[in-house]
Amino acid sequence: MALSRGLRCCQRVLAWVPVVIITLVVLWSYYAYVCELCLVTLTNPIEQVAYLIVFHVIFVLFVWTYWKSVFTLPLQPDKKFHMSYADKERYENEERPEVQRQILVEIARKLPVYTRTGNGAIRFCDRCQLIKPDRCHHCSVCAMCVLKMDHHCPWVNNCVGFSNYKFFLLFLMYSLLYCMYIAATVFKYVIKYWTDELTNGRSKFHVLFLLFVAVMFFVSLMFLFGYHCWLVSRNRSTLEAFSAPVFQNGPDKNGFNLGFVKNFQQVFGEEKKLWLLPIVSSKGDGHSFPMRTLCEAQNPLLANEEQWGDDGLDEENRGGALLLQIIGLAVLYPQVAGRNGDFSSSSYLIAPTN
């Protein structure tokens, strides 16, 4: 027991190593840009002020979104999705699988649950003892069920889901902007150092390495951000991109696809002033989501029009979508473990060296 607790404690400590690495790289980049480039290398005061103002605006947004991605706790399902003591006792005492499935069906009738496992059964987490809401999955790293789970990211040491998916997307976007701005403003002085027009040895090392690191991270993050933009446009999570959600009528990769505008609003909300800020604005509560099938049932004429549009879009962009899937596989390195047709955990790396 003591050994198991010690191993869990070591695992928690080691889980923060990627976050510490990112923090150290960011702190060094701040020192290299502000001190070695702006204060030492630059000689024009106007240029110094302009560079520093723009840099600090991007830097604050970048750090703010990273902080929110790391320290925003994943949301868990409400108590109404947990089994009552009587239902739990009845379920555990029953040895026949078909009767157990029927018990879960009876409980799920009272809940807004529409997705199923691969074999058509109710999605039940035997570790958390609850009926899983739609798009909810159990993360073995966090040891809990997470609402609209996208993946578990070691670089933020957190599960990315309904509560912080917007923050994670903004973090990727401002990371790209941060790297692009550094590379664009540093490049001219790298050339000057390279041609010996500037000779400060210490600053030369920092400026050259700053450009190298910025370009390296930019290339890596560009593919990752592009892949998540594609996911948002289709209203899919990373898990759903690799395994389509199963509804009562079978698997449907576009089951939650409402069209680009509504898909975007599901993550960023309707208030445009909050779109670029790491402030909660996502629509819904993470337990239930509007589905394409329900929208079609309410408006058959609109359904036919949307179906035609999506089919045409799939035909036209099939090659692009396949390329994005391949990029996602190459960049994300998902490690997904399944149980009863569902996912227990998922993690991927965003470091350019991996």
Shape: elongated
Number of strand segments: 11
Instruction: Provide the spatial order of strands within the biggest beta sheet.
Output: 1-8-9
Helix segment count? 12
Task: Report what the structure shows.
Mean pLDDT is 85; it is low at 297-324 and 326-354. The protein has twelve helices and eleven strands. Helices cover 57% and strands 8% of the residues. A three-stranded antiparallel sheet has the order 1-8-9, with no helix packed on it. A two-stranded antiparallel sheet has the order 2-3. With 354 residues, it is mainly α. The two termini are 35 Å apart.
What's the topology here?
Layout: H1 2-14, H2 17-41, H3 45-71, H4 85-93, H5 97-108, E1 115-116, E2 124-125, E3 130-131, E4 137-139, E5 144-146, E6 151-153, E7 158-160, H6 165-194, H7 201-234, H8 238-242, E8 246-247, E9 250-251, H9 260-268, H10 292-298, H11 300-316, H12 318-332, E10 337-339, E11 342-345
Antiparallel strand pairs: 1-8, 2-3, 4-5, 6-7, 8-9, 10-11
Helix pairs in contact: 2-3, 2-7, 3-6, 4-5, 6-7, 7-12, 10-11
Quick take:
The chain is 57% helix and 8% strand. By secondary structure, it is mainly alpha-helical. A 3-stranded antiparallel sheet has the order 1-8-9, with no helix packed on it. It has a two-stranded antiparallel ribbon with strand order 2-3. The chain has a two-stranded antiparallel ribbon with strand order 4-5.
Please give a handful of descriptors for the protein shown.
354 residues; mainly alpha; 3-stranded antiparallel sheet; two-stranded antiparallel sheet; 12 helices; elongated; disordered C terminus
